[in-house]
Design brief:
The protein has about 200 residues and is mainly α. The chain has two domains: about 15-100; about 120-175, Arc Repressor Mutant, subunit A (Orthogonal Bundle), CATH 1.10.10. About 70% of the residues lie in helices and about 0% in strands. It has six helices and no strands. It has helices at about 15-40, 45-115, 120-130, 135-145, 150-160, 165-175. The two termini are about 40 Å apart. Keywords: Membrane, Transmembrane, Transmembrane helix. This is Helix-turn-helix transcriptional regulator. It comes from Tropicimonas aquimaris.
């Protein structure tokens, strides 16, 4: 995938800015000088030299204008690429959220069924759900507007009814099937990082 913020090495930004500023300043200086010389009727300056300076100034202005147009075209292309990347990322994010929402809804339904199979009361199911989300007993008590002692008793009831011993076992009960053991590298590893085939 192309990096959206990559710079075009053919037109370095600092050099282009310096050239443009120098070109504009030189152009302004030469125009002012030419006007002064023509107004004062410098007889010592032949008309050919005035024409030469005039053409030189026009060429310089054309070069500066070309450089600026090239830079603007580069910025416009870059902006278009960035807009396309943002639109694509938004579409991909929306699709991923929709797909993950379906999976999470299925997981939530499976968890609720298991809570029902364990005969958890609605309060115990709330506590179990919050335990799975990683909330502490104190946080659960605050969220449910109960005492921490009540929350602790409900958590113990969840563990007793489920046959699990702790929050870690409760989490593992629902999450272990999300990660297939066959997909994980579980070969023994020596202290120096070399893996042994089983």
């Amino acid at each position: 995938m192309e990096t959206a913020c990559s710079e075009d090495p053919a037109v370095p930004r600092p050099i282009l800015s310096i050239l443009a500023a120098t070109g504009v300043a030189t152009l302004a200086l030469l125009l002012t000088l030419l006007d002064l010389l023509v107004e004062q009727g410098a007889g010592w300056l032949p008309g050919l030299a005035v024409d030469f300076f005039d053409r030189l100034i026009l060429i310089g202005a054309a070069v500066v204008a070309t450089l600026m147009v090239l830079r603007l075209a580069h910025l416009s292309d870059r902006t278009d690429r960035l807009e396309l990347n943002v639109e694509r990322a938004a579409r991909e994010g929306k699709a991923w959220r929709a797909q993950s929402r379906r999976f999470l809804d299925g997981l939530s339904a499976a968890i609720e069924r298991q809570f029902s199979d364990w005969d958890l009361t609605p309060a115990e199911a709330d506590v179990a759900g919050l335990l799975l989300k990683g909330a502490t007993l104190r946080e659960i008590a605050v969220l449910r507007r109960t005492s921490e002692a009540t929350t602790r008793q409900q958590a113990q009831s969840v563990y007793r009814k489920s046959g699990l011993a702790s929050r870690a076992e409760l989490s593992a009960y629902f999450l272990e099937d999300l990660f297939s053991i066959s997909e994980m590298d579980v070969r023994p590893q020596s202290p120096d990082g070399i893996r042994f085939d089983a």
